[in-house]
């Protein structure tokens, strides 16, 4: 990720859970599309790849913490 000059956010002092949700998402993002990110040729291609992953994460990727539903399904059921 250093290739793209992406800087992770830092939580406030004494608040380790401040950014836990987004840090978890970025961890999945980096792990699951790392290979694809290394082969992108332009910023536009990288942005599209990230947008595609966000769509996948929200609409198709089931999560055990959400009772094996996607985030969109879970939000609709709430």
From TrEMBL:
This is Transposase InsO family protein. GO terms for biological process: DNA integration. Residues 23-76 form the Integrase catalytic domain. It comes from Anoxybacteroides tepidamans. The lineage of its organism: Bacteria, Bacillati, Bacillota, Bacilli, Bacillales. It holds the Pfam family rve_2. PANTHER family: TRANSPOSASE INSF FOR INSERTION SEQUENCE IS3B-RELATED, TRANSPOSASE INSO FOR INSERTION SEQUENCE ELEMENT IS911B-RELATED.
